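User:
Care to share a sequence and structure tokens?

Assistant:
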Amino acid sequence: MRRVAVVTGSRAEYGMLRRVVRLMRDDEAVELKLIVTGSHLSPEFGLTAGEIEKDRVPIAERVEMLLSSDSEEATAISMGLGLIGFAKAYSNQRPEIILVLGDRFEIFAAVSAALPFGIPVAHIHGGESTTGAIDEQFRHAITKMSHLHFPATQRYADRIAQMGEDRARIFCFGAPGLDGIETAKYMGRKALLDELGIKTKRRLGVVTFHPATLEPGNAAAQAQALLSALSGFPDLFWVFTMSNSDAGGRAINERFAVFVNGSPDRSAAFDSLGRRRYLSLLRHADVMAGNSSSGIIEAPSFGLPVVNIGGRQQGRVRAANVIDAPADGRSIEAAISMALSREFRAEAREVKNPYVHPDSCRKIVETLKRAPLDRLLKKNFSDIPFSAPGKGALGRLERAFHLTAGR
């Protein structure tokens, strides 16, 4: 039996891992060790560890690491607390391999702590690019600390190879959170709204907006610009899912709360909806606005028009259901109007989700079961021929970054 630790630190990430986790839980060849951390353990973010327990998945370890602050300093301190907590968890559970997903600072701490233990790491959703967030750096650092890679598209697989990773360790199985998403049974509109306590006959809009962490100090202004745009659509009922624990998240949530409290007849906000309710909401919504990866990865499967705001998701592969808009009120309002048009909605319904691959979760589990653990830790750097910069390279660098100092 193979001992596999799965680390999860947020509601969205667990939703994408859920089917993989349940397959491992029910597999007699796997001893699942689920390690829960981050916002799962925070009442401020919905205490979503309870949703995991409702799935009848035993939690092996709880690693407390979030401080009651969303500053840059708090994030860095939380990473340090995470290193300590994961060291204790690995010492207690002694996993043979660790499975992680994505690019959050909680996952970076989990993977960093695994290195001294000599535990191989398998990483889902590597190779992606989100140039507006520090997650970009975390993700690529996690890739270099990992030993098996499960990218969601071929472009991302190629990027991992470009980083020197052996192609024999790269398995392009798609996004595991999308397994069965197009054929699953969802809640009807009335049942969904009744369960959420929403009474409306208006069309539904979804808002999921997080800080662009490489643009510090802008979260509040960007959230206000989004709310200004939403005010231009009084015929829609806006359902907000609150922001994450990144620096700036509280500033966003405070402004969302003011908007919802001032417009209870056409808006509602939730710390966490849970996977089934959230996906059911995407199915019944007319438009989604924000900067969440769910607009890029899940929304195409529902033909849902998405207004992707600002640079947080810049660089990700996206389907034609996505309209990009800068983070100012007029641009966002114009993009929402376009997304709600009959022509664009018809186009969005026909898109093919580039992240869907058949049987992704089972393939990931089988690969974890069969991987030769004794040979995973030692990695060779696979060199790709590269032309060294010639004369004038410094000049190109200066032009690219507008550098003039010292000249």
